[in-house]
Amino acid sequence: MDFRTELILPEIYQTIVVLLLFICSIIDNKRNLAVTRWIPWLAFIGIPLTLVSIDCEGDLFLNAYRIDLLSQFFKFSVAVGFFAAVLNATRQPTLEHGRQSDYFMFLALSALGLMFLASAVELITIYLAMEMASYSLYSLIPLRAQERQAAEAGIKYILFGAAVTAIALYGLSYIVASQHTTYIKDLALCEWSWAKSPMAVIGLTLFLAGFFYKLALFPFHFWAPDVYQGSSNETATYVSTLPKLGAVAILIRLTSMLKPGAEIVSILAVLAAISMTYGNLAALAQRDVKRILGYSTVAHAGYVLVGLVALTREGFAAAGFYVLTYVLMNLTCFWVVCRVAADGRNLDLEDLNGLHSRAPGLALVLAVGAFALVGLPPTGGFMGKLFLLTAAWDHGYNWLIILAAVNTAISMYYYLSMVIHAYTKDQTEAALPIQNEPKFSLVWGGALAVSVLALGVIPAPVFNMAMKAAGTIMP
User: Fold this and answer.
1) Number of domains in the chain
2) Which residue range or ranges hold the NADH:quinone oxidoreductase/Mrp antiporter transmembrane domain (predicted)?
């Protein structure tokens, strides 16, 4: 087909942003201070630009790059998340002077990799896009002044990432050897049962491990709590949200090749069950807020897989809707963490004591985010879990649905404990003073909370778009 610029307009614009930031990173340090003023505006412009190509469709680069509604849905989600993450990172007390341009350049480069990942439909292209999104984070995580904990987090993320990458490449070699193609549309015509193609089953399972790592799914979750705790609050905000979008986009495309009852689907169901249960139980024992949200990520990775194991259009749509909702509600909670920790320190639950009297607006935003993560109405978290559970019911994994409901009840304890500390505990003498934030800061935090509520009250527009997107790969 003829090449049309509007097909990859989001990628072109994001590349321009990366190049501008690269130029800023090599000029005088004094000019770097201005980056925090205009980069949020550039990130915001990327949101409507993704909508321009929302209805475009076509194949590019020898059919290795697919533009369809599914890819554009996730690119839009990445653009929204990137804007929120950039806006949140404009004030970083732990970032060394003169590194603003470098920091935002790596953020933009990682987001660009995620956009590539959303459209990649060939396994080697998928692998390269995944690594592009990952390498930037290897540089970002240690950027926290002279904190030893940040260096430890960076080393752990790199080592675990390298190990999982090796596993994924090993699995890719098995797929190529058994199926003789790396294109998803051709792989969908192949056999994926243990009886007929055991090497292919092993290969795909190992290749999926790379995306389990990004999703922080058990047993590839070990890095999440430590990396969240060791990295700066603003970096943890990004790492805990946007990479999940790219992982789910690829998992949807790859699992759509499978048939109900396939061994790989059963493996996904078991991993989802363990991830939900382990993540929620481990979070119960945590006092550090970022570690709580780290184990929360492990649990939510299991929830997302509930929609995938259904292998239906509704299940894939529910997974897409839920991961977008998760990104927004996690950004909402981290927004409060970054504002309360004005000096960049890690927060314990006791640091939230009396937040309703010190900063009532932030306390309200935190409450909305926590209620959404639990899955209480009328938040987007409730509707997301409802879509997941109803889509997967009566598809052979009803036990998984019941377990997901039980885990939701368990998660109430540690999510609502943040609200309890904010609203019912008395402020201690050692409580962190809340700096006077500009009004627009509270406005943007409120906007995140409103978006989470809007997805709960009127989810139809976004869910219908997710249904249409899933329809591009499922009849």
Assistant:
1) 1
2) 120-411
